[in-house]
Design goal:
- By secondary structure, the protein is mostly beta strands.
- It folds into 3 domains: 196 residues, Porin; 118 residues, Immunoglobulin-like, CATH 2.60.40.730; 57 residues, no CATH class.
- The protein is built from 5 helices and 16 strands.
- An 8-stranded antiparallel barrel has the order 1-2-3-4-5-6-7-8. Strands 10-16-15-12-13 form a 5-stranded mixed sheet. Strands 9-11-14 form a 3-stranded antiparallel sheet, with no helix packed on it.
- A hairpin with a 7-residue loop joins strand 1 and strand 2.
- The radius of gyration is 39 Å and the shape is rod-shaped.
Length: 410
């Protein structure tokens, strides 16, 4: 018996040590696989840790209900009830000491999910038992009330979201409230239990999260000539609303146009969006060179992509948006800073041509103008010699500042 007790104690020590190490890994899996309520049944063989009036075979059969705390599902208040049976092994009084304890207890369990299919933890509880001795005296059955406390560890295999199988080393203690102290003392047990967890599997299709409402997505016509402008300047915006009754976190918003982007362009990040809160996020775009292959006006459908976490569960939502893409020969002048989209200072042909102009007129300085003004005038004249023209959009006069720039194609 002592060897068996040492073995069981080693298992319990290993379980507690592993549990302490597991607590340092964080609780995202606990939140992701949380469940509203669980029901379990279990069996445990018990061994007394002190000498009793006789030897017993002691078994416990119990059922329990656990209700994880929604915001911290690793902590699980529980109630447990069942029967502890003491069967005497005495050959002289085979039935005299036989008795049963009906017990009920409440407490709290801690269960940390350190891998997708494994949990480790412990529990502690307190309650009462009522022991019935059917053959202790000749006058009939007698009973006695007892105090009951218990604590133990557990390692759990979770083959699916709803099913969990636990191995449970456990230490309990019974104290009689009457002079009938036949079985007072500590009991060590090792057993297992089978649990069913209610709720929806977060990995199933029906558990798809939709916490974001797209209230408005604004994308005006875009212009290939302004490819570099859209990288740092917003061209539109999106309104996002959290429809949950709890916050969502770690939001990342992106804009993606298939065929004209190598990857989605990040528009912004939001650490937390409170219940019912609405935010406006500006949109940016990093188009690749394919935008220069379009002709005229090309209707496109892009996506606004939002990734986030709902109580540690990762989620993604996509909102399609239609707009027109104009080819590289067109641009609007609603903002005169957009002229920068037509200038490529690093272009080798442009740099060579500018150097040629400087060399050609270096012997013809104008003392009344500074160097920058002189070069601007010289460059303007040189471009005119090449036949580069500027033509206003005839449908929108200059006074309205809505002009169309037509540049020669290479």
């Amino acid at each position: 018996m002592n060897r068996l007790l040492r073995t069981r104690a080693s298992v319990l020590l290993l379980l507690i040590t592993t549990s302490a190490a597991a607590q340092m890994t964080g609780g995202e899996l606990d939140l992701y696989y949380r469940y509203p309520v669980g029901f379990g049944v279990g069996y445990r063989a018990l061994t007394p840790l002190r000498a009793l009036v006789t030897d017993f075979t002691i078994v416990e059969v119990a059922a329990e209900v656990r209700v994880p705390v929604p915001s911290a599902p690793a902590f699980q208040p529980l109630v447990r009830g069942g029967v502890i049976g003491f069967d005497s092994l005495s050959t002289e009084f085979s039935d005299k000491w036989d008795h049963r304890h009906l017990f009920a207890a409440a407490g709290i369990a801690y269960a940390h999910r350190f891998a997708r299919t494994f949990e480790i933890g412990a529990d502690i509880l307190a309650g009462a038992t009522y022991a019935t001795f059917p053959s202790l005296v000749d006058t009939g059955p007698v009973g006695a009330a007892n105090l009951y406390v218990g604590a133990g560890g557990k390692i759990t295999l979770v083959p699916s979201y709803s099913i969990a199988v636990e191995v449970q080393p456990h230490l309990s203690w019974i104290r009689s409230l009457s002079p009938l102290r036949v079985t007072d003392g500590p009991l060590f047990g090792l057993g297992f239990s089978l649990h069913y967890r209610f709720g929806d599997d977060p990995d199933s299709a029906r558990a798809l999260i939709r916490s974001i409402r797209f209230d408005q997505v604004t994308v005006p016509p875009l212009f290939a000539a302004m490819q570099s402008y859209y990288v740092r300047n917003p061209f539109g915006s999106v309104l996002l609303t959290n429809t949950e009754r709890h916050p969502i976190t770690d939001l990342e918003i992106a804009f993606f146009q298939q065929g004209f982007m190598d990857s989605a362009t990040i528009a912004g990040a939001i650490e937390r969006l409170d219940p019912g809160q609405t935010v406006e996020v500006p949109l940016y775009a990093s188009f690749n060179q394919n935008v220069f292959t379009t002709e005229g006006v090309t209707p496109l459908v892009a996506e606004v992509i939002v990734t986030y976490r709902n109580r540690a569960r990762p989620a993604e939502q996509r909102q399609p948006v239609a707009y027109d893409l104009h080819d590289r020969s067109a641009v609007t002048w609603d903002d005169d800073r957009k002229i920068g989209a037509l200038i490529t200072p690093a272009d080798s042909a442009l740099r060579n041509y500018a150097s040629f102009i400087r060399q050609a007129v270096r012997d013809q300085p104008r003392a009344t103008y500074n160097e920058s003004m002189q070069f601007s005038m010289q460059l303007y004249s040189a471009l005119a010699e090449l036949g580069v023209l500027y033509q206003a959009d005839p449908t929108a006069p200059f006074e309205q500042h809505d002009l169309l720039c037509v540049v020669p194609r290479p």
